[in-house]
Design a protein that fits this description.
The complex is a heterotrimer of chains A (50), B (220) and C (230). Helix content of chain A is 94%, strand content 0%. By secondary structure, chain A is mostly helical. The longest helix of chain A is centred in the middle third of the chain and has 47 residues, at 3-49. Chain B has one domain (7-218). Chain B is built from nine helices and no strands. Chain C contains six helices and no strands. Chain C has helices spanning 3-31, 45-72, 76-107, 116-136, 142-173, 188-229. In chain C, helix 2 (45-72) crosses helix 5 and helix 2 (45-72) crosses helix 6 (188-229). The two termini of chain C are 30 Å apart. In chain C, 44% of the residues are buried. Chains B and C meet through helix 7, helix 8 and helix 9 of B and helix 4 and helix 5 of C.
């Protein structure tokens, strides 16, 4: 690969990498949200029983 | 108090009253202005030691503008401190005056402070470095208006935050970049008119924007 | 809009972004003929400029939502304005990085003060970083929403003014202006490729925006739920 090709590919890969990083951070956040929802559902159920 | 003949007159009266309050306060406490004067002269002395031997004369003119911007920051940081400490800002906001009058009055008093500081800084600069040219002075006056307009609004924002004095330079410096370009250009370029015109544009645009949005910064 | 419609919108946007970007990538690497003067490195243009324009669009969108917030005093716009600025900053960082790479491959340096777009993005990056500092140092509430909105408006006004300033500054700063052997006008195939890539990055920004908004609103609703149950 010529040097120009390397740099061009690097530029496109950086964009891809940042977007993928964003997606990963987002899936962690969704995990946290799911955990919170199960917690809250548990809380609600306990209140209903009580 | 009878209603004034023109609605603008009561606005102007509010602005005058508020500006007078700020200037009298400074006259009595004498803390901000002497600090600004000392700061700007010390900075100029530092520049002498900071500029390597081969530096051109114009480099000094550039540094003068850096000194002015940071001196302005010093003054702006104190702009609403008195109000915050006495919780006066809430009182001012509750007063039946247009909130933008608060902005105008504060900005005018900042301009006054800056002009006084420059009255000392420019002779010092002429003494230590290069003579001061007319376009440079014109640029400084125009820049003062822009700095005061934008700085007053940002200072009001900073005062409402937890970070206070730390926040104002962060908010202010990116907005100060065009002012520096205009000012240095007016001071060193061959056709200062273009740069003075640019400074005028900056002043007009940001003064209108600050005047219109100040209310939203100080109220809920 | 019911939530199912909104989730459809999000999926559609993501799918569109995926298709457009993949297509654009293929066009940029395989279809568009090599630029005669610049050579292979010119192909960075198809990712760098769309990303830059998308960043501007995000800042503009954020400012528009900010204006709506101040106009209607409706706090829902605060989140929309904030996510738009947030995504704009992400694209801004990408602009700086791809622009830097392009500079490196063209002239061997990672930075050039002569590149007006790069310098402008640097100034904007500083400005919008301060936006986040502002938000983090004020208690959440209507005050913070209004201050952020005013600051976002200042940002969008700063864009043309800074650009003018940078142009004026070149007269006395004399940056080492590297010249790029640019084939002046875009040929048909180049314009088409550019269009597809631009549409792709805009769709990507929109998809990210919609998703982040959903996430943040869900956060809000969960917090309310938690308070209601506590």
């Amino acid at each position: 690969m010529t040097s120009a090709e390397k740099y061009v590919t690097a530029a496109y890969l950086v964009v891809l990498a940042v977007v993928l990083l964003y997606v990963i951070i987002y899936s962690f956040r969704l995990q946290r949200l799911e955990r919170e929802i199960t917690e809250l559902a548990e809380l609600a159920r306990r209140k209903q029983v009580a | 108090m009878t209603a004034p003949a023109f609605p603008g007159l009561s606005y102007a009266r509010d602005v005058a009253a508020l500006a007078r309050k700020d200037l009298l306060l400074e006259l009595r406490s004498r803390d901000t202005l002497p600090a600004m004067l000392l700061f700007v002269v010390s900075t100029l002395v530092i520049f002498h030691f900071a500029l390597p031997a081969g530096s051109s004369d114009v480099a000094a003119a550039g540094l003068l503008w850096v000194a002015l911007v940071f001196t302005a920051l010093l003054g702006l940081t104190r702009a609403f401190v008195a109000e915050r400490e006495q919780r006066l800002l809430d009182g001012l906001v509750l007063a039946p005056c247009d909130r933008s009058a608060i902005w105008l009055a504060k900005a005018l008093s900042i301009v006054a402070f800056l002009l006084l500081a420059e009255a000392v800084a420019l002779p010092a600069f002429a003494l230590f470095f290069d003579p001061v040219t007319a376009p440079m002075v014109a640029g400084i006056i125009l820049a003062d208006l822009g700095i005061a307009a934008v700085g007053t609004l940002l200072a009001a924002m900073a005062v409402a935050s937890r970070a206070r004095e730390l926040l104002l330079p962060l908010l202010f410096l990116p907005l100060a970049i065009p002012i520096i370009v205009g000012g240095v250009g007016a001071s060193v370029a061959d056709d200062p008119g273009r740069y003075l015109g640019f400074l005028g544009l900056y002043d007009a645009v940001f003064a209108i924007l600050s005047w219109a949005t100040f209310e939203y910064v100080v109220t809920e | 809009m019911t939530s199912s419609l909104r989730s459809n919108q999000a999926v559609l946007l993501a799918a569109a972004a995926f298709a457009l970007l993949l297509g654009g990538l293929a066009l940029a690497f395989y279809w568009v003929p090599q630029a005669p003067l610049e050579g292979f490195r010119q192909r960075i243009f198809y990712i760098h400029v769309p990303v830059a324009l998308t960043a501007y669009a995000c800042f503009g969108w954020g400012a528009w939502k900010a204006l709506r917030l101040l106009w209607k005093r409706d706090r829902r716009y605060d989140l929309e304005s904030y996510t738009a600025v947030h995504i704009g900053v992400i694209f801004g960082i990408l602009t700086l990085v791809t622009g830097s790479i392009w500079a490196r491959t063209s002239w061997g340096v990672w930075w050039s003060w002569g590149e007006r777009q790069l310098v402008l993005f640097l100034v904007l990056f500083l400005f919008y970083c301060a936006y986040f500092m502002l938000r983090y140092s004020v208690e959440p509430g209507p005050r913070r929403a209004q201050m952020s909105a005013v600051y976002a408006l200042f940002g969008v006004v700063l864009i043309p003014i800074s650009f003018l300033a940078i142009r004026l500054a070149e007269n006395f700063i004399h940056p080492v202006v590297f010249s790029r052997d640019v084939d002046e006008n875009l040929t048909g195939s180049q314009a088409a490729t550019f269009g597809v890539c631009l549409a792709g990055t805009l769709a990507l920004a929109a998809a990210l925006h919609v998703n982040e908004l959903r996430g943040k609103r869900l956060d809000e609703r969960l917090r309310e739920l938690r308070e209601a149950l506590a």
